[in-house]
UniProtKB/TrEMBL annotation, chain A:
Cytochrome b/b6 N-terminal region profile domain location: 13-224
Name this protein carries in UniProt: Cytochrome b
Note on cofactor: Binds 2 heme groups non-covalently.
The keyword Transmembrane belongs to this UniProt entry's keyword annotation: yes
Pfam families: Cytochrom_B_C (PF00032), Cytochrom_C1 (PF02167), Cytochrome_B (PF00033)
Gene3D superfamilies hit by this protein: Cytochrome Bc1 Complex, Chain C (1.20.810.10), Cytochrome c-like domain (1.10.760.10), Cytochrome c1, transmembrane anchor, C-terminal (1.20.5.100)
Residue ranges of the TM segments: 42-69, 90-111, 126-148, 160-183, 195-215, 246-263, 305-324, 336-357, 363-387, 663-681
Length: 690, 138
């Protein structure tokens, strides 16, 4: 397993190097000849998947950093420009953002795997603790990465998380100032987070090396939890484990690609498409999904310091697992009670995650407290107790015995899973009912959009009509500052020619300068110019519109959403429903009513809108029948206007959507074939090992 | 990694004119990147703030200690929730004061914590009255 390798390269040049630096021997003994237990199942491929994800994140991250500007005024825009103008920038950004989530999916599976099969037990304690360190570093890296786009959630997430340290008595406040580099989250904070976000992945890579080293010294655990004794118990790493890992990675990439190409925003928050505003806190601050269980623990404790301690404690406790669970039998396969409790614990974690995303009121707070107690009870009571009272089933003598005796003992985990899931289901159902009762506002009706689904395309006619509606109506108050006139002639857009786009641009007056005399002047627009904004600055926009600045519309269909709730967000994953934003925008445009219904009072200067949260909207009814005439004979109705302008705004929010879906299809065809090949190769390689 | 010289310099005192703020209204100004609420309290709000039993509060402090005498109608507080730093919304919640949307802390019309996870009252920034209608913060 370790120690000097007897590997001798045959090539003289390699021999020359090997005598001075035995690197090939190291590689050979670690990844080729390394004996790996015969009975590993697919849960063991997640180590390889994680290494792959780390590689992807570092690679895409380095390229993104070449285009990103870490400045509070420019960061949000620079991310948009990456997505819009950099070659395949949208792909890089999606890969990196979704990649972070996928990294955590894999790490959670990997951790639960370790928990179930007792991979933290003697002699693998250090291996496990290194894993916990990697996990902590990942959380820090993920958090700082989420701050970089400098949207509303980035900013307020950073505020809330850095403020956690202010709970420390006496020195807390100074620590927070030190983290911020100022009196609040601001430009210095962004700069240091960028620097650290670039640094930490390499630290992770370093600890991963230690992790793998420790693994190769202690040897891999396996589903039966008995150490390999003879040659018969193991197979060489290459080709056996290599090909199996390749197949695992290929399958995982299918999931990864599903998000990258078809639902890149499913795991994110719509609020992060609104630029950071230090003056307004969004109504629900939610961290990224992978922190939700810990966030739920934080919030369920009514005392600030205790909440922070509990949250960090929930992670740190993992490092003590080898000593909390002193049972001799490693694998839960042979521990009937531990197995049941393991599944209950999984459900507790998932439910905590669900609660972390809910508003902190009523039943959610109580459920959060109960589950927090369950979480800690698992580590502090259940595991130590089980080690004393549980009677484990006899473990096989050796791995090869276990492989030979493999019978249909599959039913037991199924039963406990079913029980656990039923429990989760009923709890879920309970919480949804109360959620429904508390909301009571209309959900926007779902429309049929030409751009939905895996093969969706924009309707060119609708884009052109929508542009006309924007130009004649919306543009009086709303900017479109991320869209340039040249975009109108780009593939996947409204389908204008370059000359048409130039002619369109020249109808606009654009401010330029200063000229040689030092004066600003106006000139006709050029294709490279961006749509001019109707107001010179936000204050002017605010003053002219009764205190509410009309938002820029470039990203509006991605920046608005409504709550889908359970179970819809689960179905959405399969149906690729991604059109909450457009549905909401179209609904608001048509949701005006002359008179507010009984019992709703609308303040002076606001209007009643059925779909606007809170119902009092500052924008007067923007569209009325016959307001804009279309050249192509489409009906001049509000419904038509709303639909067309929303389609147009979906395009402005994501001009490369068609390219994304097209490439997605090609990638899927490739990945499915690749995974199939890997599967059959793996079968062949393993044919006589099972 | 502490704040650099320019950040510190930008944190110098500012003056705010109070005359445009009508009774029952409030404004938000920024000082050192922090939102400062200046509210022109109504008689009702002042009475409510003074009627509570100070000893029963989570962070006991009398309303008199939180405003300048002779200017009882003016409440000046840093609008940063003492829990985890969100900006509370003025004129919301059940105490005629502030409500924090993040984790549900409620402050009364004197900016004192009444309910929720926040441990302390909204802090009063250093300020003084330069004239009857003008204050200097910082
Ligand atoms: S930040 Fe205000 S309640 Fe948590």
């Amino acid at each position: 397993m370790s120690g000097p390798s007897d590997y001798q390269p045959s090539n003289p040049a390699l021999q020359w190097i090997e005598r001075r630096l035995p690197i090939f021997g190291l590689i050979h003994s670690s990844f080729v000849a390394y004996p790996t237990p015969r009975n590993l199942n697919y849960w063991w491929t997640f180590g390889a998947i994680l290494s792959f994800m780390l590689g992807v994140q570092i690679l895409t991250g380095v390229i993104l950093a070449m285009h990103y500007t870490p400045n509070a005024d420019l960061a949000f825009k620079s991310v948009e420009l990456i997505v819009r103008d950099v070659n395949y920038g949208w792909l890089l950004r999606n890969m990196h953002a979704v990649g972070a989530s996928m990294f955590f999916v894999a790490v959670y599976v990997h951790m639960f795997r370790g928990l179930y099969y007792g991979s933290y037990k003697e002699p693998r304690e250090v291996l496990w603790i290194l894993g916990v360190i990697i996990y902590l570093l990942m959380m820090a890296t993920g958090f700082m990465g989420y701050v970089l786009p400098w949207g509303q959630m980035s900013f307020w997430g950073a505020t809330v998380i850095t403020n956690l340290f202010s709970a420390i008595p006496y020195v807390g406040e100074s620590i927070v100032t030190l983290l911020w580099g100022g009196y609040s989250v601001g430009n210095p904070t962004l700069n240091r987070f960028f620097s650290l976000h670039y640094l930490l992945p390499f630290v992770i890579a370093g600890v991963v090396v230690l992790h793998v080293w420790a693994l190769h010294v202690a040897g891999q655990n396996n589903p039966d939890g008995v150490e390999p004794k003879t040659e018969k118990d193991t197979v060489p790493f290459t080709p056996h484990a290599t090909i199996k890992d390749m197949f695992g990675v290929a399958c995982f990439m299918l999931l990864y690609a599903w998000f990258i190409f078809y639902m890149p925003n499913y795991l994110g928050d719509a609020d992060n498409y609104i630029p950071a505003n230090p003056g307004v806190t969004p109504p629900h601050i939610v961290p990224e999904w992978y922190y939700l269980p810990f966030y739920a623990i934080l919030r369920s404790i009514p005392n600030k310091l205790a909440g922070v301690i509990a949250m960090f404690g929930a992670i740190i406790i993992l490092a003590f697992l080898p000593w909390l669970d002193s049972a001799r039998t490693k694998s839960s396969k042979y521990r009937p009670l531990a197995k049941q409790f393991f599944w209950i614990f999984v459900v507790v974690c998932i439910l905590l995650g669900y609660l972390g995303a809910q508003p902190p009121e009523g039943i959610y707070v109580i459920a959060g407290r109960v589950l927090t107690v369950c979480y800690f009870a698992y580590f502090l009571i259940v595991l130590p107790l089980l080690a004393r009272i549980e009677k484990p089933r006899p473990v096989p003598n050796s791995i090869s015995d276990a492989v030979l005796a493999k019978t249909g003992s599959r039913s037991t985990p199924m039963v406990s899973t079913a029980i656990a899931l039923a429990l989760a289901g009923s709890l879920f159902a309970g919480s949804i009912d109360s959620a429904k009762a508390s909301e009571g506002s209309d959900t926007p009706p779902a429309n049929k959009w030409s751009f939905s689904g895996p093969f969706g395309k924009f309707d060119r006619g609708a884009l052109q009509r929508g542009l006309k509606v924007y130009k004649e109506v919306c543009a009086n108050c709303h900017g479109l500052s991320y869209v340039a006139f040249r975009n109108l002639a780009e593939a996947g857009g409204p389908g204008y020619s370059v000359a048409q786009a130039a002619a369109f641009a020249s109808e606009y007056k654009v401010k330029d300068g200063p000229n040689d005399a030092g004066d600003m002047f106006e000139r006709p627009g050029r294709p490279a110019d961006y749509f001019p904004s109707p107001f010179p600055n936000e204050q002017a926009a605010r003053a002219a519109n009764g205190g509410a600045a009309p938002p820029d519309l470039s990203l509006i269909t991605k920046a608005r959403s409504y709550k889908r709730g359970f179970p819809w967000f689960v179905f959405d994953f399969f149906t690729q429903y991604q059109e909450q934003g457009p549905d909401y925008v179209a609904a608001v445009l048509q949701g005006y009513e002359e008179k507010a219904p009984e019992g709703v009072t609308i303040p002076e200067g606001s209007y009643y809108n059925k779909y606007f949260p809170g119902h009092a909207i500052k924008m007067p009814k923007p569209l009325s029948d016959g307001q804009v005439t279309f050249d192509d004979g489409a009906p001049a109705t509000v419904a038509q206007y709303a639909k067309d302008v929303t389609t147009f705004l979906m395009w402005t929010a994501e001009p490369h959507m068609e390219a994304r879906k097209r490439l997605g299809f090609q990638v899927f065809v490739f990945l499915i074939i690749f995974a199939g090949l890997m599967y059959f190769t793996k079968k062949k390689v393993w044919a006589d090992s099972h | 990694m502490n704040p650099d010289a320019s950040t510190i310099a930008a944190g110098a005192p500012i003056e705010v004119d109070l005359s445009p703020i009508a009774e029952g209204q409030d404004i938000k100004v920024f000082w050192r990147g922090k939102p400062i609420y200046i509210s022109h309290r109504t008689k009702k709000q002042i009475d409510e703030a003074r009627a509570v039993n100070v000893a029963s509060l989570p962070d006991p402090q009398s309303d008199e200690a939180r405003v300048k005498s002779g200017h009882e109608q003016w409440l000046v507080v840093i609008g940063i929730c003492t829990h985890l730093g969100c900006i509370p919304i003025a004129h919301e919640g059940s105490y005629d004061g502030f409500f924090c949307p993040c984790h549900g802390s409620q402050y009364d019309s004197s900016g004192r914590i009444r309910q929720g996870p926040a441990p302390a009252n909204l802090p009063v920034p250093p300020y003084q009255f330069v004239s009857d209608t003008k204050i200097q913060i910082g």
